[in-house]
Design brief:
Translation Initiation Factor IF3, four-stranded mixed sheet, elongated, 18% strand
Length: 114
């Protein structure tokens, strides 16, 4: 299970606010196929929101713990029937290159480069 600091959890909660649930756990509970789907989703997204269709809070807590332990993820938030988990991507997404310092190219220089 991945341990997150308070500052990391706060930042991840802010990012998760705009997300929609990617996986929905139904009445059958946490089945192997649901775990496989969560694993596939974690390979492409580092932060997941999961909806659980269960009224028992302790059962939802147990599901979140089991998901985090089996998939080596960190528990970010459990609010109502929503679970938010985080696992860093194996291959981080490349960031845009930084802008060059100095003078910018003129239109003529840009035209000759193309």
């Amino acid at each position: 299970m991945l341990n997150l600091s308070v500052a990391q959890r706060l930042e991840l909660k802010g990012r998760a606010h705009a997300l929609k649930p990617v996986v929905i756990i139904g009445n059958a509970g946490l089945t192997p196929s649901v775990l496989d789907e969560i694993e596939r989703s974690l390979k492409s997204h580092d932060l997941l929101k999961i909806r659980v269709m269960n009224d028992d809070r302790e059962a939802r807590d147990a599901m979140m713990t089991e998901i985090c332990e089996l998939l080596k993820a960190g528990a970010v938030q459990h609010i109502g029937k929503m679970l938010v988990i985080y696992r860093p991507l194996a291959v981080p997404i490349a960031k845009a290159p930084k802008a060059r310092k100095g003078k910018s190219l003129t239109k003529k220089q840009l035209g000759s480069k193309a």
